[in-house]
């Protein structure tokens, strides 16, 4: 058991970080010009109205981040306070840090312009360390989560800039830059923090209860309902509505598939609540990168079926194998919900990109595949180089996921080494997956076995 003094110093460090954020906001962040009071003779405030119109989708994403992710991780029977509380803490921290990190990459005259779209971007970025937290759930301290989040969001912002602005890949729903990055970064950290071979068995509290599983289903339901907003909020024009339709259909197909495959592979052919809580959402991840493309409704359904199947099989067979052979304890199974479905989405994006024609997308090509603008059998110069053809764009989609995996895994390994071998305190085996070390828990709960 660690001393109260150690806890106090950790919380002081958290407050210092918040004060640093305050100073950085004061020095660098300003409201976007369109959000300032217009001049007396100004006739147009159109941009501000456009930003306000996205507020309903912003609310949807807020619900996903703060309620959906938080309650999904309450399945551990003695970790409900930490699952919901640390989700709130990490998301509030990361939203601020993401505004700064992304803003530093897009500064104008040495300042960061702040609008509702920046906050939406930051909310989406908050999903990245929350996904990683799922791979480590119950085995880290708050100060370790803080350190991980700071490093991860910095790397995430750099990787996203590289993927979207340099490679110019299509990733409307963030399956490559958000889900794949968060999953494999978290798994790499978990690999570095893995237990010794003589302590590889599951912890005494590493499991669910009937009540905790019901609470986790609340998180699943909120995520399922609002996932179309997550995938479509950054899409432009008709692509936004396609993103909603494709995401919904993929989720629906993945859900039906999850129930069927779960019953087929589980003991006594009974449904497994772990599958229902997680694999039903895999369709939303798998369709994310391509959700605004012309998939055809059958394409969205097919992606959902594949994602649901792969996710359930991952929970049933791959996760136990990783635990037994790699000593990698993926507490929430983020590899099955976020990692592998994101790889499916990246592969699908390469396939669909290879079939893109100007005739199909017309004026939308600029928004979806800007590096392909001007390609119609001729070589047109764009952004200092030659505009891409469909095959080249498909190659860049694969390059985007490859570089994302490289940065995520490499960054996760380095972060895990820092958390394990520096002055950070690591929780002992008997301290895992319980709230009482950091929360005031009712006495009746402490007395339960």
Number of strands: 4
Mean pLDDT: 89
Helix segment tally: 17
- SSE pattern, N- to C-terminal: HEHHHEHHHHHHHHHHHEEHH
Q: What is the rounded Rg? A: 22 Å
If you consult CATH, what is the topology? Ammonium transporter fold
Helical content (DSSP H or I, runs of 4+): 55-70%
Q: What are the segments in which pLDDT stays under 50 over at least 5 consecutive residues?
A: 375-384
Strand order of the largest sheet: 1-2
Distance between the termini: 19 Å
The level 1 CATH classification is Mainly Alpha
Shape: globular
Instruction: Briefly note the structural class of the backbone.
Output: mainly alpha
Number of domains: 1
Q: What would you give as the CATH superfamily?
A: Ammonium transporter AmtB like domains
What is the correct CATH architecture? Orthogonal Bundle
- Quick one: biggest sheet? 2 strands, parallel
Strand content: under 5%
InterPro entries: Ammonium/urea_transptr, NH4_transpt_AmtB-like_dom, RhesusRHD
Family: Belongs to the ammonium transporter (TC 2.A.49) family. Rh subfamily.
Keywords: Ammonia transport, Glycoprotein, Membrane, Transmembrane, Transmembrane helix, Transport
Membrane topology: Multi-pass membrane protein
